[in-house]
Amino acid sequence: MSALRFGYGTNGFTNHRLQDALAIIADLGYDGVALTLDHAHLDPFEPGLTRRTATVAARLADLGLAVVVETGARYLLDPRRKHEPTLVAETGRARRTEFLCLAVDVAADLGAEAVSFWSGVRRPEVDPRSAWEWLVAGCSTVTAHADRCGMPLGFEPEPGMLVEDVAGFERLRAQLDAPPLFGLTLDIGHVQCLEPDPVPDCVHRAGPHLRNVQIDDMRRGDHTHLEFGAGEIDFPPVLAALTQTGYRGLVAVELPRHSHAAPDVARRSIEFLRDAAARRPTVVPTAGRRPGTADGSWPGQQEV
Predict the structure, then answer these.
(1) What is the structure's pLDDT at 200?
(2) With 90 as the cut, is the pLDDT of residue 146 above it?
(3) Average pLDDT over every residue of 228-250
(4) Statement: residue 2 has pLDDT above 70
(5) Out of 21, 22, 226, 273, which could bridge 16 as a Cys pair, Cβ 3.0 to 4.6 Å?
(6) Global confidence as pTM
(7) 192 neighbors 232 (Cβ within 8 angstroms)
(8) Which CATH number fits domain 5-278: 3.40.50.1820, 1.10.510.10, 3.20.20.150, 3.40.50.300?
(9) Residue 86 burial (10 A CB sphere; 0-12, 13-18, 19+)
């Protein structure tokens, strides 16, 4: 079984300068970094982006870190409304699309392995059919730009958003006519939170489309990213399933609420993942459907 490549997300280091965060992540032995473009970390809207991107690319190379680009900064596009505007917003969708295309450009200059993005939350006043049409249109534009740059895309299902599960991703990809570079970002915690099947089964289902993997612990029905061991996930079978799919990208820790203790959390995380990888089974059992409650439903989740 080949070794998995672990990374750490910079959205869990928001109290650190980016250069310092990268050094700590590398010193701990991570293979790469999931870089969220944000105010403190390679702001794409500040002057001198080309120069600053080249500086980060050189630093990544010096540290031997691979990189994927994440686009989920909370207040980068709107200082008052978290994550807005989105691809499914009634107004401002063009700003989100332009940002995602810019992220593809930055990723290409960094030599990144993928760009990750999501749909956004459909607000109550937005018609579901219109939201879906807007999403398909926006993804088409971003995918066309990514094709020109040769940059893989990882679309992330996010609890509470218009596309929140793997089935939704599969529907979206089909409506886009299955572009080769349009793949999946799979957050292992999200699978535990809301997918109907056991986590290893969902990993195998997603395997052919994986471009990016985020990893964290979580509880059923509760969209709160937790440190490893604080949730419900049995990680050795999950890591075995990732290996069995042939996935070769980064498996990056996603703990956006843990910046206050980032160095210690990052250290504990890599120690946990190494131990779990050493204990992963050679055969991953399947348990069939795993209900969230006695009637097969699951309790409401909270967007975080």
Answers:
(1) 98
(2) yes
(3) 97
(4) no
(5) 21
(6) 0.92
(7) yes
(8) 3.20.20.150
(9) buried
